[in-house]
Amino acid sequence: MSYNTITVSNLTPTIGGEVSGIDLTAPLPAEQVEELHAAMADRLVLFFRDQKIGHEDHIRFANLFGGVHIAPSTKPWQVPGHPEVTIIHADADSKFVAGEDWHSDMSCDEHPPMGSVLYMHTIPPVGGDTVFSNMYAAYDALSPGMKAYLDGLTAVHDSAVGFGGITPEGMKLPRHSHPVIRTHPVTGRKCIYVNRGFTTHIEDVPAVESRAILSFLFEHVQHPQFQCRFRWQPHSIAFWDNRCAQHSAIWDYFPQTRSGFRVQILGEKPA
């Protein structure tokens, strides 16, 4: 695609685009916003370098794409005074990091976020990349018979999975059912919508069948042909479409520090 106000450099033929010619610390002109929408529909995840944004800039950018989604399971990590902003941090004291399993953010919510905007200000000297995978491509690569089998099935997504099945005291964690194959509301394309990070089982099939099918799909979506890998630098931003992309945060930098903030964007009930 060609653009008038931005430049988008593709990371791979399948997914990912690095955007230049833009300043996210200031309000964006309408044409630039329109082109970002088009670039997102085309590339699924957009990357920005050298964007030293504050919380207000972060929230303003998210609001250009549909308002802010505040997930109940992120409450312990919300920035004081800015519940829209979640702290993403790992260091030498961390026992685990969020997002190591392949997942779509907060797919456990009734209306999962349309997208996520992650800003990282502190990066380890080496490592800490994030890998993204194209769920359109993953669906297209299925056999006709598998597509027919999956069409119409639903699966349960449970946020307690991320807490080892134990709900922290005082927290109410969401659990909802969504289609295994969803249709993207903007592009009209079908994509796989189950993920290792939240999906527990397929409904209305025997448990052994559910485990076998989910195991296959969890492995299938990780195929390198569907992926791009982003190497972070200080003050970089990744903005991805949760409806048609999954991602995995690679924790290969212990005991170094990796720190930033995330804002999520309102989405619709998967259909």
Would you summarize the structure shown here?
With 271 residues, the protein is α+β, with helices and mostly antiparallel strands. It has helices at 30-43, 55-63, 135-140, 144-150, 207-220; strands at residues 7-10, 17-20, 45-48, 68-69, 78-79, 82-90, 115-122, 130-134, 154-158, 175-179, 181-183, 190-192, 199-202, 227-230, 236-241, 245-249, 258-265.
Describe the 3D structure:
The chain is α+β, with helices and mostly antiparallel strands and 271 residues long. It has a single domain, classed as Clavaminate synthase-like (Double-stranded beta-helix, 4-Layer Sandwich), CATH 3.60.130.10. The protein has helices spanning 30-43, 55-63, 135-140, 144-150, 207-220; strands at 7-10, 17-20, 45-48, 68-69, 78-79, 82-90, 115-122, 130-134, 154-158, 175-179, 181-183, 190-192, 199-202, 227-230, 236-241, 245-249, 258-265. The strands form four sheets. Strands 1, 2, 3, 4, 5, 6, 7, 15 and 17 form a nine-stranded mixed beta sheet that branches. A three-stranded antiparallel beta sheet has the order 14-8-16. It starts with 6 loop residues before the first strand and ends in a 6-residue tail after the last strand. Residues 8-262 form the TauD/TfdA-like domain. Keywords: Dioxygenase, Iron, Metal-binding, Oxidoreductase. Belongs to the TfdA dioxygenase family.
